[in-house]
Structure formats: structure tokens, C-alpha cells
Design brief:
The protein is α/β, with parallel strands linked by helices. It is 30% helix and 26% strand. The protein has a four-stranded mixed beta sheet with strand order 22-23-1-24. It has a four-stranded mixed beta sheet with strand order 2-15-17-16, with helices on one face. A four-stranded mixed beta sheet has the order 4-5-3-14. Helix 6 links the parallel strand 10 and strand 11. It binds ligand EPZ.
Length: 419
């Protein structure tokens, strides 16, 4: 298992560009199951492990993918392929459940393994299933699998019990081929959902209201092919901007939308970092004297839970005491004890963590437990005095393309130890 060896402290200085968004590319890949046979080309598909896993699943489901002119062309090449997502794949990446809606809508049948537990929380998919049942699907759970069938999905009104990102995406994709109009309420409003709706409308769907609480989908008989460019990854980009503040550096993120990052940029400004958005990018600089400030994670446009761990690293260096309330996932503070190994003073109590700043972190051997926790520890290692070794970076590779190279280009001393 590879590790990162980091020598700190370093200031992050320079320009960086985010790759395509993992959490926009995953539903986009699932959507390649929908077209009637015409190819769908996706640009800016990030080279991360979760994407490779999804491509393997698509291949199993009869969708071939081929690199071409800076994009990836997806086309159905085995019409009689299975319509099931096996446990072996789903257990490695729960987002595989995103093939459920498209398979059901396109073929009237889908068999998808239940995802099971996850390091950061229980993460049930009941809302996905209730949404598909509202469209007329028969859904059964047996032997660890969801079996869903529908001779024809029908438009309906459905209200999610809570805003769920992949739940909204799954039901949205299914509703595109349902007979009649579907109205989805209490939807998640993440930019990745807007990107998916833009892709689907490009290939012939009729969706309005994506990014709002209520989305309306007029079903169509079939979807064609087309081309789409995935939005930049706001979580990856946000990670480097938090790194700029933590290391008291000066980083410009090129090509990302300030609107998608607004919840983070507002918090960085509140903490005392300087945030400038210009044509050439989003620039974050920080000198000493950052202020601790309290934060609640929340569905978009609230502060993203996927930046919570990185934010905690920043708060260890800020003056005063700050509190983070994690409201989305019940077990997402596993980075706290690792930060404490580096000299941070963090006290976790259920869904809240109090961080006693301003501490100079010291390098240590630490262990990554999930994707965003690993990003937090890497940033902490760049800012810390001395050597840090981050173990289990396979978590990081799920969602960060070439992180050590991007950090090196910003002046960090990070090396991969191939073990
Ligand atoms: C998406 O997960 C992201 N993953 C997650 O990113 C992200 O943390 C999360 O949204 C929240 O922003 C992808 O897009 C692939 P939810 P998702 O359904 O869709 C509960 C990363 O680091 N819920 O919006 O699985 C659920 O338990 C990953 O890139 C139900 O109870 O999250 C949670 O408490 C980690 N029943 C809340 O809703 C359901 O059927 C929000 O979860 C669905 C969700």
C-alpha cells in the first residue's frame, strides 16, 4: 500500500487547475446506459480510481468506452448484456448504485447489490427505492440485492424525505424515460446535479429546475447521443484553496466557478483569509492571524461535508476555539485522532468537534480512513514541522487526480512511497 512522505512546513504558492468532478462524472457515466445506441462523448473525465471502477461496471453492462480527442466515447456494444451490478463492484464503490435508475428506465429491469455500510456512515438508499417505486417500479430486496422491474415507468410527484445527491440523480435519470411528467420535491441542489441535468438535456431529455428544490421532468420516448464536458471538481479545488490558507500561502485556482465554491469562499473570508475572484481564477492568500470560526455542514448551498475534514486541519492553525457540526454523516470525524497525533487539540462529542487553535502541527505517521480524511492529513503534513507519512493513500486515489504532482507544483515536498 503506497504512502505519501511529506516534509514540512511548506507554503503552497502558485496556480492549480481542478480535474473534472468525480461526483459529476460518476452519474454522467451511469447516464451512458440511457441512449438508444448512439455514442455519448464525455470530456474532462477525471483519472481517478472510482471512475475506473464505474467504467468496469459499465463494461459488464455492455457499454464500451474508448479514449478519443481528449474525451471518452461511450457506446453500447453488447445489447444483451446483463442488467446487474454485482456485489464485488458495489462493495468497492457505493456510487455504483447510480446504474439502478438508468437500467430500470432503459430495460425495465435492474438487479443491483445493496451498497452496505461505509466508513463515514450507514448511508441507506431507501429514498432511491421509494422514488423509483413512485414512478411505478416493483422493488424487492433479496439476498443482498435490489431487484427492480417496470414494464413502463410513469411520471409522478415524489418528495424526498431529505435532500439526497445520488438519490436525486438516480430518480431524475429514471424519470427521463417515464411516460408523462414527474415532479421531484425536496431535491438536492448540488452543482453536480445541475451538470447531470445539462448532459441529459443535451441528449434529448426535458428537465427543468435542476439546482432548485423542485425539479420537473417531462418524460420522452428515447434519448440520443451527444457530447458533454464535466464541470471542474469543486471539492478538489476547495482542498487546494484550504491548503493555501493553512500554509499561509498564495494559490490561484484556475477554471473553477466561484459560485460553486461560494460556501467555502465565504468561510475562508470569515476566517480572515484574503479571497479574490478574477477572470484568471480564484486566489486565496493568508498571513498569520486567521480566526477560528464555527461551521455546520449542510446540503448545497450550505458548507459541503466533503470539505469538513480539510477545514478542520485549517482550524487547528487559527486563533481561538471553533466548532464544527457535521450534520450529514454520523461518523465523519475519523481524521480528528490522526490530527491529534500531529499535535492538534480537537475534542469530538458525537456530531460536533471543538478545535482549540492556534497549534503548530508536527510531522507524524498517520493513517487515512476515507477519501476526504486523507486529503486533510496530506494538507496537515504540508503545513507541519518535520516529516509526515500518510498511510493508506489508496483512499485518496479514489477522488484526487495526481495530488502529489499538483502539490509539488505549488511548492510542497511530497513524495509517493511505493510499498
Ligand atoms: C454524495 O453521496 C457524494 N457522493 C458524497 O461524496 C457526499 O458526501 C454526499 O453526496 C453529500 O454531499 C457522490 O456524489 C458519488 P446523500 P450520497 O444521499 O448521494 C441520507 C466524497 O467524498 N440518505 O446526499 O450518498 C444519508 O445517509 C463522497 O466524494 C438516506 O437516509 O449522499 C446522508 O445522511 C462521500 N437515505 C444524507 O441522506 C437515502 O436513500 C445525505 O446523503 C439517501 C440518503
Amino acid at each position: 500500500m503506497d504512502k505519501f512522505h511529506i516534509v514540512g512546513p511548506s507554503r503552497l504558492v502558485g496556480r492549480v487547475r481542478a480535474s473534472g468532478a468525480k461526483n459529476a462524472a460518476l452519474p454522467a457515466l451511469a447516464a451512458t446506459l440511457l441512449p438508444d445506441g448512439e455514442p455519448l462523448t464525455l470530456h474532462r473525465v477525471p483519472g481517478v480510481r472510482d471512475i475506473r471502477t464505474m467504467m468496469r461496471l459499465l463494461d459488464h453492462l455492455g457499454i464500451a468506452s474508448e479514449e478519443s480527442e481528449g474525451g471518452v466515447v461511450f457506446r453500447r456494444d453488447r445489447p444483451n448484456a446483463d442488467h446487474d451490478a454485482p456485489y464485488d463492484v458495489v462493495k468497492t464503490m457505493r456510487a455504483s448504485v447510480l446504474v439502478l435508475g438508468p437500467l430500470l428506465a432503459r430495460f425495465g429491469h435492474a438487479r443491483v447489490s445493496l451498497p452496505g455500510g461505509c466508513a463515514i456512515g450507514v448511508r441507506p438508499i431507501d429514498q432511491h427505492l421509494k422514488g423509483l417505486e413512485a414512478l411505478g417500479a416493483e422493488v424487492h430486496l433479496s439476498h443482498g440485492y435490489v431487484e427492480a422491474t417496470a414494464s413502463q415507468l410513469r411520471g409522478a410527484r415524489f418528495r424526498f424525505d431529505m435532500p439526497t445527491v445520488t438519490g436525486t440523480e438516480n430518480v431524475l435519470m429514471a424519470a427521463c424515460l417515464a411516460k408523462g411528467t414527474t415532479v421531484l420535491e425536496n431535491c438536492a441542489r448540488e452543482p453536480e446535479i445541475v451538470d447531470l441535468a445539462n448532459l441529459l438535456n443535451t441528449i434529448g431529455a426535458r428537465i427543468s429546475g435542476a439546482g432548485e428544490e423542485t425539479i420537473v421532468i417531462d418524460g420522452v420516448d428515447g434519448l440520443g447521443g451527444g457530447e458533454h464536458t464535466i464541470i471542474p471538481d469543486r471539492i478538489e479545488g476547495g482542498t487546494y484553496l484550504i491548503g493555501a490558507a493553512l500554509t499561509r500561502g498564495d494559490v490561484t485556482l484556475e477554471g473553477s466557478s466561484p459560485a460553486d465554491l461560494a460556501p467555502l469562499l465565504d468561510k475562508l473570508a470569515e476566517a480572515g483569509a484574503k479571497v479574490e475572484t478574477t477572470e484568471s481564477g480564484i486566489r486565496v492568500t493568508a498571513s498569520d492571524g486567521l480566526q477560528g470560526c464555527d461551521l455546520d455542514t449542510a446540503p448545497h448551498p450550505g458548507f459541503p461535508t466533503d470539505l469538513q475534514a480539510q477545514w478542520m486541519a485549517l482550524m487547528t492553525s487559527a486563533d481561538g476555539v471553533s466548532t464544527i457540526r457535521e450534520t450529514i454523516f454520523e461518523n465523519r470525524f475519523q481524521h480528528a485522532p490522526e490530527l491529534m497525533r500531529m499535535g492538534a487539540d480537537v475534542r469530538v462529542d458525537g456530531g460536533s468537534a471543538r478545535i482549540y487553535g492556534a497549534r503548530r502541527l508536527t510531522g507524524a505517521a498517520v493513517m487515512a480512513t476515507d477519501l476526504r480524511a486523507s486529503a486533510c492529513l496530506v494538507l496537515a503534513g504540508v503545513a507541519a514541522d518535520g516529516e509526515t507519512v500518510v498511510d493508506r493513500i489508496y483512499h485518496l486515489e479514489r477522488g484526487y487526480e495526481g495530488m502529489e504532482l499538483k502539490l509539488q507544483s505549488l511548492g510542497a515536498r511530497v513524495a509517493r512511497w511505493v510499498v
